[in-house]
Amino acid sequence: MYPKGSVQYNAIKSTLPCVTYNFLFDCYKKNSNIISSTGLLYVDIDGVDFDINMLDKTKIFAYYKSFGGNGFGILIKVNGLTIDNFTNTYQFILEDLNLSFYYDKEAVKATQYNVLSFDSDLFINVNCHIYEAIKNTPTPYVIEKNKIAYTKGLGEYESIRKIRFDNLDEISIDGDYNVFSEGVDVIKCFIPMKQIKTGRNNSLLGYCNNLVYLNPWLCLEETMKIMQKVNIHMCSNPVDVKHLNRIVTSIFKYKEDGTLSPNFYYKKRKVIFNRDFKAKPIEKLIIAGKEMNKLKATQSQKKIYDVLENWNFEEYGKISQQKVITVTKLNKKTVEKYYKSFKDYIKTLNNEFKTNKAPSGKENIEIDTLPMIDENTSENVFKMDDEVDIKVFLAELYHKNNEQIDFDSIIEFCYVLNKSRATILEILEALLMVYKENRYEHSPFQKINIPRFLIELVYETKLAA
Asked: How many CB atoms lie under 10 A from the CB of residue 102?
């Protein structure tokens, strides 16, 4: 495969068939020639750090790998899309699907065309959720549908005692809302957007389980009446009364045995609003989307920092923006966005690398006279708690024993201690450990050659008081 943007890549791409998903046009595509919406909205995702599994697939009509292989084309069903509401609708859907951090801004056009790409793992959901285009005064259509999961089935009991359909009231919120970076486990009484045809038993069991767990005061008869309504709303072909009664009875048996436990919702909640926060549902969606984008930004910055902190100069050499993209496997735009925040840190790391890099490609270890070795006696006199530069200390030992300095072994040995400075006792103990391990065939330290004079030094050294 030719690199994206290359002459060969563009030449092949120009010969492939294209489609304009958003609108139908009269003769040729431009905004003034729009005839009507196709009922679909196309979103272009261009980034290797995007995880397709994060998508709520109940709201996606289709997705497939892009022509270049690094991104995705995503199709969403939308009613009432026009050139006037296109931008607002597009932005709202991005927020709702948490895609604001990944989409290609250059592809947000009513006339956007897309090269047809072959993907053997094409995903299609013909029964997906259908969005309504944003009008001048946005309506909380998604939330209205979601209310099916929380308000239907209450019937006459709502006026007697409030029924809980989630455990969000147990989570302490400071202010209008809180953001939880690791997410919070939530217990929900959940009804899918679309009525289900299969898996009715498990779905009804799950709803009833959480309903009784969250409302232990409910009796079997009251629960049965609520579940009859849930049965109608949840299932395209509701189960019969006997089947439903078996479900409710089995849940109450767990309750009586003291073994009833909640089923946590498959997604952790990261943004939780205070119940007293007076905002329109669509405003809450936008806030949640923005906060999720901030979390993703923080995670990307942490990933870049971790890579820089553990940068392998021996393998990758001097740090550059392109190398950071390669090592982190983050999207180019993501790295470009945050790279400048690390410029001073990168400059410091690169300068340290340059200072310690010899022209031959080996470590440039300066041989200075160290106080640890007394040349005028036959004994080696050390203070074991003295902290020294490991490379300089070992190089000095080679020098004093008229041995050629083994730069590669010294560098590898520093990785064993995982630091540049250590006490003499730590160095000698590590030398002995490596020497013993290298007697075995599968030692991880085979690249380190411990000379005999160093081993003799370890055994013969007299420890200072």
From this structure: 25
DSSP string for residues in 163-225: PPSBSGGGS---SSEEEEEEEE--BB----SSPBSS-HHHHHHHHHHHHHHH-TT--HHHHHH
Secondary structure letter of residue 380 according to DSSP? -
User: Three-state SS for 290?
Assistant: helix
pTM of the model: 0.36
pLDDT per residue as tens digits for the range 456-465: 766 665 433 2
Q: Which is higher by pLDDT, 77 or 101?
A: 77
User: pLDDT digit string (tens) for 301-333?
Assistant: 778 888 888 888 878 888 888 888 888 888 888
The residue whose two tokens read 């160095």 is 427
**Phi-psi map region of 454: left, alpha, beta (phi>0 left; psi -120 to 50 alpha):** alpha
The tokens for 256 are 């009586």
387 φ, ψ (degrees, to nearest 5)? -95, 130
Q: What are the tokens at 390?
A: 């490991």
CB atoms within 10 A of CB 273: 17
CB 5 within 8 A of CB 13: no
Is residue 146 within 8 Å of residue 94, measured between CB atoms?
Answer: no
What contacts 24+ positions apart, CB below 8 Å, involve 414-422?
414/390, 416/445, 416/448, 417/390, 419/390, 420/389, 420/390, 420/391, 421/387, 421/388, 421/389, 421/390, 422/387, 422/388, 422/390
Residue type, 328: T
- Find all residues with CB under 8 Å of 324, minimum gap 6, and list them: 304, 307, 308, 330, 335, 339
Nearest to 426 by CA among 389, 375, 371: 389
Cβ count within 10 A of residue 274: 16
Q: Residue 230, Cα to own-chain centre: how many angstroms?
A: 35
Q: Helices 220-234 and 241-257 meet at what angle, rounded to 10?
A: 130
